[in-house]
Amino acid sequence: MATLIDGHPSDKVSALDRGLAYGDGIYRTVELLNGVPRLWRWQWQRLVEDCARLSLPCPDEALLLAELAAAAQGIERAVAKITLTRGLGQRGYAMPADAVPTRIVTASPWGGYPAERYSDGVTVRRCDLTLSRQPLLAGIKHLNRLENVLARSEWADPSVHEGLLFDEDGGVVEATMSNLFALKDGVLYTPRLDRAGVTGALRAWLIDAVPALGLAMKEGSLAEVELLAADALLLTNSLIGVWPVAAYRHAGGEARWRDFELAHRLNARLAAEA
Amino acid sequence: MATLIDGHPSDKVSALDRGLAYGDGIYRTVELLNGVPRLWRWQWQRLVEDCARLSLPCPDEALLLAELAAAAQGIERAVAKITLTRGLGQRGYAMPADAVPTRIVTASPWGGYPAERYSDGVTVRRCDLTLSRQPLLAGIKHLNRLENVLARSEWADPSVHEGLLFDEDGGVVEATMSNLFALKDGVLYTPRLDRAGVTGALRAWLIDAVPALGLAMKEGSLAEVELLAADALLLTNSLIGVWPVAAYRHAGGEARWRDFELAHRLNARLAAEA
């Protein structure tokens, strides 16, 4: 794995970094083909928005692209991670007025997920953890991810690929590392992420792609009963692309789906995307 | 500042540490006098509990004490920070079965807070941020502290020393870096921290000390109207000790208190504590 810290080859950060002390920063996971990030338009837009939400100085786009290319040099298909923190901190939560962000770019070879996850669909479970509600952080891909860690640690069964997370009102929000879409009668529904959850770049891409597919798009609340009645469920993130859900294990049993046509269409469209 | 990482002098941690990636870890702030941590019994108990709550392997107590003493060597009065993370991670939220925690101990000279904060009391404000509710993380001094960062960044006025944080139900939970107590008719009230907030070591010490002061102790919900009617408000943490609140600025104006006798008694008792 190649790592650049503020542009310099290094795999160490200061023990006083606010990213470590408080999780005071953001990150993005990006796939690169021959050094070129996929879906960059959506990745960059999300990164800019997340920086603005946390009053974090945003890095220069050209600089970041150059660092991604440098970290992934010689790797045909790479997974890169960009982490931006509020930099060094002394004691105290207040954001330093003169904060100098730390910029961490790592890249390593990426072989993709097993083909069966796309052909046969994935199995998901309902997580016990209920996501908390914080509108000021909702949507941001920030470094405070203990809820995801706890939720993902609820199961060890390798035949379960993801876990769905619900909020206090009983609405589904997302999965532990992916966003969720539900198709019903030609309408693609996805949870609104204004109180919890992470807005993935692929989620943003998919929302933009929906009109061209002849579907309607709707963001809103989604209860479990609506998931069970859906024609198809999809999970998305920048590395996954689109996984069709084959089985959903919940308190009342297991629901199954067999029509993965929309996921296949979306993945084909995604493959054609620059 | 002296820093030990896993016992070795260093001020750098791996860029792949899960403490940085996810805030997957805990910390404690400890005052040391000639290398001996104050209130260690309460600090250690909280640390053990927090490790258990997050399934984080707990370090050896004697080892940690030796590292604290080594980091603070030659410093008469030091502030130390212990950070424990789940160690190196690869991609993915799941807790590695073979996680080797990272142990960071830093120490630096500590001059204490200005004497007026004890003699004249402090000024606090009501924060706009509403704390989210997550029983699985409540009470733990974990590294997911973006809510504290955002709340503390609501004000820059140096005459305001702390900000009170409320939950969705309108109950006060804590302040941005301290716990809150309210005295009323010989009963000391403090918010229950089972849905949000951080259980400070000094909070635990104070709860243990209350019976000897001839007061009753009650943990429960505390609304703003009850704060305004209190005979005294106190803020506590391991570095502060006990600050009496002189003024509380809220939407309806400013409430003031002048009787700081309980804070003074508690600080005297604290000074006598080993």
Second-tier CATH architecture of the largest domain in chain A:
Alpha-Beta Barrel
The tally of beta strands of chain A, per DSSP, is 16
Which series of helices and strands of chain A comes N to C?
EEEHEEHHEEHEHEEEEHEHEEEH
In CATH, what is the homologous superfamily of the largest domain in chain A? D-amino Acid Aminotransferase, subunit A, domain 2
End-to-end C-alpha gap of chain A: 25 Å
Secondary structure tally, helices of chain A: 8
What's the alpha carbon Rg of chain A, rounded to whole Å?
Answer: 19 Å
Number of domains of chain A: 2
**Mean pLDDT score of chain A, rounded?**
96
**The CATH class of the largest domain in chain A:** Alpha Beta
> Could you tell me which chain pair has the largest interface and how many residues each side has?
A-B, 56 and 56 residues
**Poorly predicted segments of chain A:** none
Strand content of chain A: 25-35%
Structural class label of chain A = alpha+beta
Shape of chain A: globular
In terms of quaternary structure, what is this?
homodimer
What helical percentage do the residues of chain A reach?
Answer: 10-25%
Sheet of most strands of chain A: 9 strands, mixed
CATH topology of the largest domain in chain A: D-amino Acid Aminotransferase, Chain A, domain 2
Word description of this protein:
Two copies of one chain form a homodimer. The longest helix of chain A has 14 residues, at 40-53. In chain A, the strands form two sheets. In chain A, strands 8, 9, 10, 11, 12, 13, 14, 15 and 16 form a nine-stranded mixed β-sheet that branches. A six-stranded antiparallel β-sheet of chain A has the order 2-1-7-6-4-5. Chain A is built from eight helices and 16 strands. In chain A, helix 2 crosses helix 6. Chain A folds into two domains: 2-109, D-amino Acid Aminotransferase, Chain A, domain 1; 116-272, D-amino Acid Aminotransferase, Chain A, domain 2. The model of chain A has no long low-confidence stretch (mean pLDDT 96). The two termini of chain A are 25 Å apart. In chain A, strand 8, helix 5 (146-152) and strand 9 (162-166) form a beta-alpha-beta unit. The first copy, chain A, is an alpha+beta fold and 274 residues long. Chains A and B meet through strand 3, helix 1, strand 6 and helix 5 of A and strand 3, helix 1, strand 6 and helix 5 of B. Strand 3 of chain A pairs antiparallel with strand 3 of chain B, so a sheet runs across the interface. Chains A, B: Pathway: Cofactor biosynthesis; tetrahydrofolate biosynthesis; 4-aminobenzoate from chorismate: step 2/2. Chains A, B: Its cofactor is pyridoxal 5'-phosphate. Chains A, B: Homodimer.
